[in-house]
Design brief:
mainly alpha; Arc Repressor Mutant, subunit A; 3-stranded antiparallel β-sheet; about 65% helix
Amino acid sequence: MEDEVDRLVAAWRRERPDLDVEPLEVLSRVSRLARHLDRARRLAFSEHNLEPWEFDVLTSLRRAGAPYQLSPGQLLTQTLVTSGTMTNRIDRLAKKDLVERLPDPSDRRGVLVRLTPEGRDRADQALAGLLAQERAILAELSRGQRGELAALLRRLTAPFDNIPG
């Protein structure tokens, strides 16, 4: 089975035989797959009236477990945005009644961000929709192949996840 990357690689091999274009065979496919995944994510989230960034914040809180709350600093760490961006996001989610701010009992100057019941429901529904989209993307692979691919991708991405800063 030939795909667009095979055609791209063949063209580069013809036009630039002096270059080793083998990395394109893997990374161009990863890049194309990422675009398809991005479209699938946006579709799953839009069906639940969520933007991707809203899903990221809501699911960070949902994964925290009951009572589904984190400090803004913890949310920053999980979503990799600036404090100003996070403040804006929390404000916007609070206006939609998807999160609420509460005083932090361990720090009288601090606040906690808690998922509302509506926020929890929307996060759960959007996650189910996302997983259905992702299952469709992976449908051509067996369970063993999915595990093998996950292990290989982990090996490639782990060094990036462990870089300080």
